[in-house]
Amino acid sequence: MSRPPPKRRPPLGHDALAGGTDLPVLLPAAERLQREAARDRLLGWPRLRLRGRDGVWLCLLLLLAAGTAEAQALASGRESAFTAIARWIPLLLQGFGFNILISVLSMALGTLLGVFLGLLQISLLPPVRFSSWLVTQFFRNAPWLVLLFYCMFLLPFEIRLLGWRIPFPDWIKAIIGLSLPVMANVSEIVRGAVNSIPSGQWEAAESLAFTRRQTLWQIIIPQCVKRMLPPWMNLYAILTMATVLASIVGVSEVMTLTRRVLAAEDRSDLLIPLYGFILLWFFAYCYPIARLTTWLERRYAVKL
Amino acid sequence: MPSSSEIPTPPAAQAPEQPIVAIREVHKAFGENEVLKGVSLEVAKGSTICIIGPSGSGKSTLLRCVNALVEIDSGSILVEGREVNDPKLDKLALRRRVGMVFQQYNLFPHKTALQNVMMAPITVLRQDRREVEERAVQLLAKVRLAGKEQAYPGELSGGQQQRVAIARSLAMNPAVMLFDEVTAALDPETVKEVLVTIRELAEEGMTCLLVTHEMGFAREVADQVYFTDHGRIVESGPPAAFFANPRDPRTKEFLGQIL
User: Fold this and answer.
1) What is the ipTM score, two decimals?
2) Domain ranges within chain A, ordered by starting residue
3) What is the pTM of this model?
4) Out of A93, A157, A238, B153, which could bridge B107 as a Cys pair, Cβ 3.0 to 4.6 Å?
């Protein structure tokens, strides 16, 4: 006869905290940790935690790389790395603007579709609920690049509608391709936010003879907006950084342009400074969004 | 005092002496757990009924059955002659006649006190906004919250929130009011201000069905007290007799622990 293994008590500390605790003094911390975990679950990935320190490191790295390039350039008597990069800034900025445009439009499209899909996920009809859940999970767990490729190669290059020819350029396909994962994630954010509203709100509305639709639109959704804003903004920052994926499918956004610039310059020493420079732009764009998100989160956490 | 236009006209099928709420042999189980095991009680129009009993005895569930927040397994609940245990029941029509106030207030936090009171009549009853606003201001004054119209629930104390919740239910002109342990989350001082409001309502002739732990209030205001335990009504009677001479040993034990 084998003896049952001895029961091990879970060690006190972080493990005990994360799963809930009986110790009253630890309760506030446990609650906070659980809240953080719940928020991360709502998002599906850890929140984008950009810090100002990261930016300083980035700048230092860039300076180092540029300095090396500069030293090499001086040694071989070529043009300074800084002037070479400065010459291309207008073109690269155009490309970066294109990235921002793609991110804004696919966010808008993804949000529109995602809110709709998220509302289907809380439908009372099981088939509707299940199928929308399936769609959400599919697009949420598919790699973004794969979705982008699918849109690139499956969508036609133009649509004929009532004799009109509507061209369907690559960048529009990229917007659609990127909006699909955004849609799925927004759908989850909506579902999570609606579920996070205390059931008492539903009961109060029900007992006042509100219909389900009235309850949803007048009582639940307005309360959800605050809760959805931080994860939604975080999603946008992540999407912005993912727009460079469009370069792989041939959209002439900032990465594509950078590659072309490097080819035109034909200088291997520019590689690191130039890409670092682009990286810095993305950081400069996403960092304020990340800070604002943190600030909003903190502000709404108190009020609820 | 409610004006004559506010007094609802009962359906023709109902004779005046019939109880406004009649609960007969109601059973309800959540999974394996049988919460109500054949509960029967009647509420006469204009009377005040208090249901007391230990936690988990099914008091709140019983109340939630009356406005169909919880569906019952078997038995019958008639509200103004309308059968609640009927698959074809028009829940919205029922809930327009039955107001409910919750332990946790459940005010809508994104709306001001006035908007909280105005929302249902405008959205559900499609009444004129200006008339509703006028009545809402009156109702808030009635629950002694004049001047707090523009306050958000988060800016009000628990007792004030609960009184807004009462005004919100009254705005629908219900025939019956259900109070589900409405003072359980309040401190002793604010309990009083809420109970005073409810007592005024009862004195004005509103039919009230309360689940409460406030024995003093039940003794003072109730026309009939019911004691529930383990999903059954163990004992009932007018408060004077009920509190002075409880017959059932279980009631004696419960009252002995409280008083």
Assistant:
1) 0.87
2) 50-300
3) 0.79
4) B153
